[in-house]
Design brief:
The chain is an alpha+beta fold. It has two domains: about 120 residues, no CATH class; about 45 residues, no CATH class. It contains three helices and ten strands, in the order E-H-E-E-E-E-E-H-E-E-E-H-E. It has a six-stranded mixed β-sheet, with helices on one face. Strand 8 and strand 9 form a beta hairpin. The radius of gyration is 17 Å and the shape is elongated. It starts with 5 loop residues before the first strand and ends in a 7-residue tail after the last strand.
């Protein structure tokens, strides 16, 4: 269970605090679900708020040191905000802890108590289970570009493109394959 949500520098939350409970509950959820494309999870220390980061891995060989190779990640931030304590969640850049404040945050719940934490982790589970596909543009057996996106194209969708960006914009993909958190390599 310790492989999930390792603290990234700084001090760990105080034992017995809501933040420590949130990390533990997040680890228990990930340990129970075991998403095979989320080997690089991490948590940022609670300086401005505790952040849980669950990046989508690009390949089986993604390194925890690199915090994954894609920028796509689900993040939950437990913070004390203008209106009081809250937990917010959204898709963010995997290389940073809550990189920016979105105009329309995908998830918000007031408080840091057990019910608030449970609601936040339920939202995380739902996001982990959303179908993600990888569109590929290939020529002569080589992948020239790849794009990751939510298959449902619903709210707060991801759309990350790697490779020769113009090819992905100007042509249709050669193939589309499942590439979600639980899809086999």
């Amino acid at each position: 269970m310790a492989e999930w949500l390792r603290m990234s520098g700084g001090s760990a939350p105080d034992p017995g605090s809501a933040q420590a409970a949130f990390v533990l509950e997040g680890r228990l959820l990930l340990d129970r679900l075991r998403p095979i494309r989320a080997n690089n999870t991490w948590a940022a220390p609670p300086s401005a708020g505790l952040t849980l980061v669950v990046p989508l891995d690009r390949s089986r060989d993604s390194s925890p040191k690199l915090r994954g190779e894609l920028h796509t990640a689900i993040q939950l931030l437990m913070r004390d905000w203008k209106k009081g304590p809250e937990i917010v969640g959204d898709w963010q850049d995997a290389h940073y802890a809550w990189d920016y404040e979105p105009k329309h945050i995908a998830f918000t719940v007031a408080g840091h108590g057990p019910d608030s934490r449970s609601q936040a982790l339920t939202w995380l589970r739902i996001q982990l289970e959303r179908p993600i596909v990888r569109d590929e543009w290939t020529a002569l057996g080589l992948t020239l570009a790849a794009a990751w996106r939510h298959a449902d194209r619903g709210p707060n969708f991801i759309n990350e493109i790697r490779g020769l960006f113009p090819i992905a914009l100007l042509t249709h993909p050669t193939r589309t394959v499942p590439a979600g958190f639980f899809d086999p390599w």
